[in-house]
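Memo to structure team: turn this sequence into structure tokens by end of day. - J.P.
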Amino acid sequence: MRATRSRIITIATIVLVTAAVLTAVLRATRDGGGDESPRPGQGARQVDLAREVADFTRRFGPGHGYRQPGQADRTAVAEGVGLLLDGHRGQAEHLLSQHGFTLRTVLDRVSGRRYAEVADRTDAAVDPRGWGRVYVDLDHPPRWSVQIPHPVADLDTEQLGVRVLRGSPGGVMVLAGAHRAAGRGNAADVAHRQDTVFYAVCAELVRRGMPAVQLHGMAASAASGYDVVASTGAGSAGRADALRLADALGRRGFRVCRAWERNCPLEGRLNIEGRAADAADVPFLHVESVPEVRADGAPADRAAAAVDLVTRLWASASATAPPGRP
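Reply from structure team:
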């Protein structure tokens, strides 16, 4: 009797263990082999994204904090971001870590959204490389980007970028990692150089057909009589979006110079990310604004709300599949 009971207990234990293993295998298969992003509350540190960005950019200054990246690093970081956008988080993290980048999930307390943060591991070092950060909305399919090429140098564009990112689902924010005058010559001016991590990531987004708005800052005297200069850069694929944005800004009390209607200063026609977008016929908006528009408070809220009318349309559209991808 005792032997029979032991056999029954042994068989029951084997059945339970087998069921548990099968359940784990099925769950891993369903979730992409553990390559998916953590669910809300799992592995996500709660932050105020605006403060995170402010803390990151606080050390930026001219003449220091930038090293020229090699082609291998530029390519790898862009590929890592691409893997992340495709949902292959584990592969992305492995590749990025080999090139000095970290990947973590943060939960923005203000928007309630989870973002993947791709960050240069040397950010807090005595001698940072200054290769920047990328924030990716994990709760919605990636559809569009907001690009900040000159944080701190174009004062408060980084904070306006956070507002824009929070405004619509499916956003990716590409943030330069140094002052535009940090490197030798214009090495750190990522809006005018192809040999930067910033450009490599933006080019990967263009390859995926993702439209972009790039935010810049101008002095109040740069465009007399205007608060904002709106342009489509080197191309015209974003003309309808630019018109929509200019109208929205105008309704919110901003004076807008429309580069497709008249000659405006700072039209961004030589902008290198804009040229890449033009070559692929992908919408690209180049937006210059005076300090009052970017400063923390109601004007910046109004400006971000105007951009939001465009990015929400982008978010609702299906992204164009790049060559070789379904």
